[in-house]
Design brief:
One of its GO terms (biological process) is response to water deprivation. This protein is mainly α. Helices cover about 70% and strands about 0% of the residues. The chain is built from 20 helices and no strands. It binds calcium ion. The site of calcium ion (CA) has 6 residues, from loops.
């Protein structure tokens, strides 16, 4: 379930006017911006952007970029874009980091639906004038490159239909490769990058039943390299996205002050989807609510905005 609290009946014109007022003149009324945008769903935000453009002949996204700054600006910018466009921005940010954040790329292929991934790839091309695959190839090397390119190329079957015999034979292939530390076996990449989520989960279950240990444990072992970590992320994103996101938030919150990106990414991308479920998993794992953890580690408008998306009224 979503955490976003967005009322049904609204005047987009009033919203656009409120945002214009918040931006006009010296300084910015950040609270007014949070009050509107922190409580509107994707289709409402789209209408507000359109209405704002019509009324004031100005691009709302550009205006907000120039009015706001820091982590708050980044979060609002990501939030106000259409989901596919936002994911294209997130992919680009991940690829341009000095150390490529391959997790964000794997999330796209293993958590989004195939249709959504296609939409992100289209949006990515429109924004960057080259393809996501080209940029993934340019920013990665070796086995990690092979895997990430396969992930971004793939258009997985999205249904629930599972072939149990295939799950059994592919669990064996994965186990053989992992046992021999042949993580870069082409079969491993083929299986993880082309099979549907349902099929992969059947394979992972079979792996655990037969080997009495989970594939995630076997993949990480000691001194795991980036490629092993990428495979590990793949399995976790496929197997239990809620748990994966809760862990990402937990790690990100620990690193607050140095890297807010992953926390912003999870909250902004999941607030309209399943952030409530992620919050439950987070609480069970950490015995502190996500709201409290975020409130403790952040401040100012950034904090107020994240809490609004988390559904916590102030
Ligand atoms: Ca201003």
């Amino acid at each position: 379930m979503a955490t976003l609290v967005a009322p049904d009946h609204l005047s987009v014109v009033e919203d656009a006017e409120a945002l214009r007022k918040a931006c006009q003149g010296w300084g910015t009324d950040e609270k007014a911006i949070i009050k509107v945008l922190g409580h509107r769903n994707a289709s409402q935000r789209k209408q507000i952007r359109e209405s704002y453009e019509q009324l004031f002949e100005e691009d709302l996204v550009k205006r907000l970029e120039s009015e706001l700054s820091g982590d708050f600006e980044k979060a609002v910018y990501r939030w106000v874009l259409e989901p596919e466009d936002r994911d294209a921005v997130l992919a680009n940010v991940a690829l341009r980091k000095s150390e490529t954040d391959f997790k964000a790329i794997i999330e796209l292929s293993c958590i989004l639906s195939p249709e959504e991934l296609l939409g992100v790839k289209r949006a990515y091309q429109n924004r960057n004038k080259h393809s996501l695959e080209e940029d993934v190839a340019a920013r990665t090397t070796g086995d990690l490159q092979k895997a990430c390119i396969s992930y971004t190329f793939t258009y997985r079957y999205n249904g629930e239909e599972v072939n149990a015999r295939l799950a059994s034979s592919e669990a064996d292939i994965l186990h053989e490769a992992i046992k021999d530390k042949a993580f870069n076996n082409e079969e491993v990449i083929r299986i993880l990058s082309t099979r549907s989520k349902a099929q992969l989960n059947a394979t992972f279950n079979h792996y655990r039943d037969v080997n009495k240990t989970s594939i995630t444990k076997d993949l990480l072992g000691e001194s795991a390299n980036d490629f092993q970590k990428a495979l590990h992320t793949t399995v976790r994103c496929t197997n239990d996205p809620l748990k994966y996101y809760a862990k990402l938030l937990c790690d990100g919150i620990k690193r607050f002050g140095t890297d807010e990106d992953s926390v912003t990414r999870v909250i902004v991308t999941r607030a309209e989807k399943d952030l409530k479920d992620i919050k439950e998993v987070y609480y069970k794992k950490n015995s502190i609510s996500l709201d409290d953890a975020v409130a403790k580690e952040t401040s100012g408008d950034y904090k107020a905005f994240l809490l609004a998306l988390l559904g916590k009224e102030d």
